[in-house]
Amino acid sequence: MTSEGGTEAVKLWGGRFDASTDPIMEKFNASISYDKAMWKQDIQGSIAYAKSLQKANLLTDEESQKITDGLEVVKSEWASQSFVIQPGDEDIHTANERRLKEIVGDVGGKVHTGRSRNDQVAVDMKLWLLEHIVQLAPHVTKLLEVLVERADREKSILMPGYTHLQRAQPIRWSHWLLSHVWPIVTDLKRLRSLYSRINVCPLGSGALAGNPFNIDRENLAQELGFDGVTKNSLHAVSDRDFVVEYMFWASLVSSHLSRMAEDLILFSTSEFGFVKLSDAYATGSSLMPQKKNPDSLELIRGKAGTMTGNLCGFLMVLKGLPSTYNKDLQEDKVKMFETACTIMGILQVAAGTVATLKVNEDVCRNALSEEMLATDVAYYLVKKGMAFRSAHGKAGEVVKLSEELGCALSQLTLDQLTKISPLFEDDVSSVWNYEHSVEQYKATGGTALTSVNTQIAEAQEFLQSFRLTQEE
Ligand code: ARG
């Protein structure tokens, strides 16, 4: 089919083509099925660009008004879901321009003066991502609020702390909760700094060489709410670091939540029994009636893998690309949208699961066993003047003796203890107390009540002062 009368005639780039595109290629090449998500940003960019063209005397006031009005109509069609995608609409940029021309006639063809889909797609994606991040941030803060609020409410609950998944030392349940707060606090700070790196406008870079019509790019960027403009047009049209960084951010957050989820999955087993998930965030088995499965947490753990897969996959797309725009870059949107949708889900389900689970205080406390106080025995001797290395050895002998006699540490008599070290006295009885044990760790960051309270206060202060708005 020749371009005359063929679909190529209506294609933005159809002029130099004789033959039509193979339908398989047409489908393969099209991105409209997913990049239509950026319809609003695409129109926003075009309206601002039309204004710039007007200021540069490439559009009369009347033409600019006509284009803007036409774009507003296109916008309302998308908003009311009445926009009809036509078979030749390759992507959102093509679709909007085609529709604009149908509405306003030939003048619609002027909006693309000096612009390319290469700088257009980059600006659309940045606008979309900035908006998404502003919507995402409250979901991160919500999760933090849930964790901090629980930590504040349940400070009296003691549980075993683990290393190598072996019982190690007694800790406060709140201390465990807060251990998952701080990585996410840093994630939020990262999100804010990421926001400012995205906030640089690539529009006005053309296909690759720049804009030949003296567009005021600084003014255009300001119109669109950006902080500044990109410095090099070749770089601007091919830069997808903002997508990579965002996907890294999402991978890291999901990896943090995956680790928390893993703890909670273990804590919810019958073997541990520390927590019980709410029915709202668990599912049953189609075969075994007794089962209550922690699917919410397992999906968080699983999706963390998918997030990282997206990141690595897209890095592979970028690696080795020659300079400036290449169609490989179209792969960016699939990954970016999927990541955005998944991380939203992860954050909301994590907040809901943590907010609604029940912690079983008695089971947590009963899981504490006296051998977990062996370190405290060593610290006792240290306080009596013994070097820690020797104290560690003596405490080891105490544990060994209790194992040999088949009794708990607290059941050893003072006589038996003083045979191991004459430094043991009556006050050793104070060591056999879990509350006393956790209260030793008063230094900043420890599990003592004062330290936990400090963490809560600092986390609350952070949450009160943290804002991520469009005006960043
Ligand atoms: N749909 C394309 C993308 O998402 C838009 C840019 C097309 N540019 C081009 N030179 N073919 O990357």
UniProtKB/TrEMBL annotation:
SUPFAM superfamilies per UniProt: L-aspartase-like (SSF48557)
GO terms for cellular component: cytosol
Ranges for domain Fumarate lyase N-terminal: 15-309
All residue ranges annotated as the Argininosuccinate lyase C-terminal domain in the record: 372-439
InterPro entries membership: Arg_succ_lyase_C, Argininosuccinate_lyase, Fumarase/histidase_N, Fumarate_lyase_CS, Fumarate_lyase_fam, Fumarate_lyase_N, L-Aspartase-like
GO biological process, one term: L-arginine biosynthetic process via ornithine
Molecular-function annotations in GO: argininosuccinate lyase activity
Similarity section: Belongs to the lyase 1 family. Argininosuccinate lyase subfamily.
The protein's name: Argininosuccinate lyase
Natural source organism: Cherax quadricarinatus (Australian red claw crayfish)
